[in-house]
Amino acid sequence: MLKEAKKAIWKNYQKEIANDNYFYVRSCVRQNFFPGAEATFLKILKEELNKDIFEEPSHTTCTGIGYHGDLVPFDTTMTVIARQFALMTECGYENIVPSCVTSFGLYSEVLETWEHYPEQLEKTREYLKKATGREFNIPKNLAHASDIIYKFRDEIAAKAKYKLINAITGEPLKVVEHIGCHYSKMFPHKGVGGAEYPYVLVGMVESWGGEVIDYPERRHCCGFGFRQYLVQANRGFSISSSKKKFDSMEPYKPDMIITNCPGCPMFLDKWQYAIAELEGKTYGSDGMGIPVFTFEEVAGLVLGYDPWDIGLQVHQVAVEPLLDKMGIEYDPSKKYLGINGKNLGKPEMPNVLKTCC
Amino acid sequence: MSKPNWGYKVQTDNQIDFDKNSRGLMLQILNIEPTFGNCIACGSCAGTCSAGNFTNFSLQRLNVQISRGETAKVASEIEKCMLCGKCTLVCPRGINTRNVIMAIKRVVQN
Amino acid sequence: MSKQITIIGSGIAGMEAAAKFSEMGYSVILIEKENKMGGHVSKWHNVFPDYKPAKEIISKLKSTLTKNIKVFYETEIENVVALDGKYYLQLSNSQNIESEVVLITTGFELFNASKKEEYGFGIYENVITSANLEEKFNSGRPIKTSRDATPKRVAFIHCVGSRDEKAGNKYCSKVCCANAVKLAIETKQLLPDAEIYSFYMDLRMFDRYFEDLYFEAQSKYGIRFIRGRLSEACENPDGTIILKAEDTLSGKPLKMTVDMAVLMVGFTSSVKTIDLAAKFGISVDNDKFIKPLDNHLNLNITNQPGIFVAGACTGPKSIAETLADARSAAIQVINYLQSN
Fold first, then answer.
1. Which of A222, C36, C173, C186 could bridge across to C267 with cysteines, CB 3.0–4.6 Å?
2. For the segment B85-101, what is each residue's pLDDT rounded down to a tens digit?
3. Which residue from C67, C104, C109, C64 is spatially nearest to C329, judged by alpha carbons?
4. CB distance from A348 to chain B under 8 Å?
């Protein structure tokens, strides 16, 4: 593999990422399934990077799940997104940062639609005014949360307490990077690095000492797709997509998977359990699976935050082997203790997938 | 312990895995009737086929499947041929399709 | 006759035209940007349909060039001024020449395959172009993969950079299908135990003997043709390439591991040709090739009197067509000079 040609491609896909004053909009899936991740992102931006990042309490979903699940029509989606922009305008911000990759893709799609079809923009302004009385400006900059971390990856590296290196052998960790489909497949120029060889996560991994793996099914969707898994019978489609990826990355013996979409880590993490139960097949060493992280979680780990504060206890695939590999200090006994030491209760143990208690 | 039933299953890949499929059948047929390799899948044979009017038998599709190693249905499909000879009349590549069909029957029945 | 003809580009079109002018007693200035004549053809190995060595064509053309022909190597046109029916050309070697007629035979560029990001050219070492393969054949060395192994399976990928809106070229490059079949046969001759595949959309075997080449490829050499445009190429840990295409003839997606994938890169109009056309004020069409005045009756005249064109700068052409076009341009130029 020749890296130089990849670097030439990455140069063609650079984008404007705002420097400060961010209006943050949360992700439906990420805040429900990985609550620590968004908290970690906000902590990094506020405390480590001293940035102004603000979230308005009455902001809502972007309706991405509904729109992609054929439940919400496009007009409604445009109006709800316009309301998000209205809140951003009212709070005096111009740079919007969605936490979710589907939101990012949808905001990009809506902004493109408004640019090419101005009558749609006018219609949306009218709808929003009638429904809520609000008015909005088009954001000056739209960047995904992973773009922000990518932009400040070297600052984070400078403050890092740990690196993505195997503390025992000194070798860089082998990292599979998985980009959410809506990040750059729809609009390659809106993603850092384009659609074929996206750079946003590669840049983070390289800056933090790890080694990225290019495996054949790298581009394949994890199978989330909304309309697939909303209906139980269709989930075979989703789980098979993830399994295809796992089978493809297995020979490369990855230590971890890093993602930027909120749905992908949920799937790549939980499907390893389901595949183990249904097919008896596990990945990673010792049948413990390959731990899956979001980029905020990895940034938090690298900065030395407590793994349980980041929220890694909700992961299906055990993260402890990786924490040990990286030489991170943590207290296993505090895994299921909440604030003030309250016992949160332990989950049931899976039958096939091995895990730490 | 029994496998759970969650209402969905891991699906098998529809993709033709060229590396895993065996082209043994193709090589055997080529040995018997070398002109089999000259097929360009133009479909002239299938378009005129008598059996093709009433079944979904298609010699064109069968030839392609054999050369890709997708041989699961060959034995049952080849039985549908009526041996009327129309395909041999029209083949622009001069393939002896009658012999190809006889070769397929011979090989799959052994 | 003292009239002087300037030809820009000394590929096969320029060389043939120069020879014809010189036969008729004209003096010729040949301006060439490289340090030798022959253009792209000088890099090929054997040409279709009869495997004639490209070197033979070049040396035959060279042998017809006489002393009336003056060649400026490593020289380009800096500036053009048209005045009173004459063209004043300022060359990059600081010389100025004056010419009543100019024949543009600047040819083409091969499509830059790294633009097809999903094919991994330049990233995966065992993905090469047809030009790379011709070079390997010319070197006389045995064909090996990047890990120095003898390939057991080679795939030829048609239509790379042609018939492709994403690549910016909607047109068909015409000759790559015949070339691919010829290269497949030659590869099989060098690697008799290898399996050779061709991934195509359509097979454009348009000229005499091309269909015979196709038949021979199948019947004599066992080359297998899969109708499906390559969707993506990926790399295995051992450097072999995984190809994914739709097998349209059976209606299913197909995955295949090969030791080497050869991309049939098409014609594109060269950046310098487009620049030159702007300097001369001649039209370029949407496909970026020079636009002659008529598509049937006269492919050598442009919208500027005295400026003629021949060869691949007006669109993809085979060698035979290019040489015929060059001779046709020669007649047009001579007629023009004699009537003025």
1. C173
2. 999 999 999 999 999 99
3. C104
4. no
- Measured in angstroms, the CA of C222 and the nearest CA of chain A are apart by 29
Predicted confidence (pLDDT) at residue C188 exceeds the cutoff of 60: yes
A32 is written with which tokens? Answer: 């429900």
Contacts within 8 Å (CB) and 24+ apart, A248-251: A248/A215, A248/A216, A248/A217, A248/A218, A248/A220, A249/A176, A249/A213, A249/A215, A249/A217, A249/A283, A249/A290, A250/A283, A251/A215, A251/C237
Amino acid identity of A327?
Answer: G
**Angle, helices A118-132/A74-90, rounded to nearest 10 degrees:** 70
The pairs formed by A157-162 with CB atoms below 8 angstroms and a separation of 24 or more are A157/A207, A157/A208, A157/A209, A157/A302, A159/A48, A159/A303, A160/A208, A160/A302, A160/A303, A160/A304, A161/A302, A161/A303, A161/A304, A162/A301, A162/A302, A162/A304, A162/A326, A162/A327, A162/A328
> Which of the residues in chain A have pLDDT under 70?
357
Q: What one-letter code names the amino acid at C146?
A: S
Of all residues in chain A, the one with the smallest CA distance to B3 is: A278
C234/A1 Cβ within 8 A: no
Q: What whole-number distance in Å separates Cα of residue C213 and Cα of residue C179? A: 10
* List of chains touching B (3+ CB pairs within 8 A): A, C
Rounded Cα distance between A38 and A309, Å, is 11
Question: In sequence order, what are the residues at sequence separation of 6 or more whose Cβ sits closer than 8 angstroms to the Cβ of residue A104?
Answer: A98, A142, A144, A182, A183
Give the closest of C117, C125, C242 to A2, CB-based. C125
Distance CA C201, CA C302 (A): 34
Average pLDDT estimate for C227-233: 95
- When pLDDT is averaged across residues C2-13 and rounded to a whole number, the result is 90
Residue of chain C whose Cα is closest to the Cα of B18? C256
Residue C1's pLDDT is what? 47
A15 touches chain B (CB under 8 A): no
Which chain C residues have a beta carbon less than 8 Å from that of B34?
A: 219
Closest residue by Cα to residue A51 from A72, A27, A78, A22: A22
CA A52/CA A20 separation, integer angstroms: 6
Percent of chain C with pLDDT over 90: 94
pLDDT in tens, C288-326: 999 999 999 889 999 999 999 999 999 999 999 999 999
Intra-chain end-to-end CA distance of chain B, in Å: 41
Alpha helices, DSSP H, located in A69-144: 74-90, 101-116, 118-132
**Model confidence pLDDT, tens digit, residues A169-178:** 999 999 999 9
AA identity, residue A298: V
- Residue B1 pLDDT level (bands cut at 50, 70, 90): low
Give residue C102's pLDDT: 96
Q: B64: distance to nearest CA of chain C, Å? A: 6
> B7 and A279 in contact by Cβ < 8 A?
no
- The first and second tokens of residue A320, run together, are 């402890």
The pLDDT of residue C187? 97
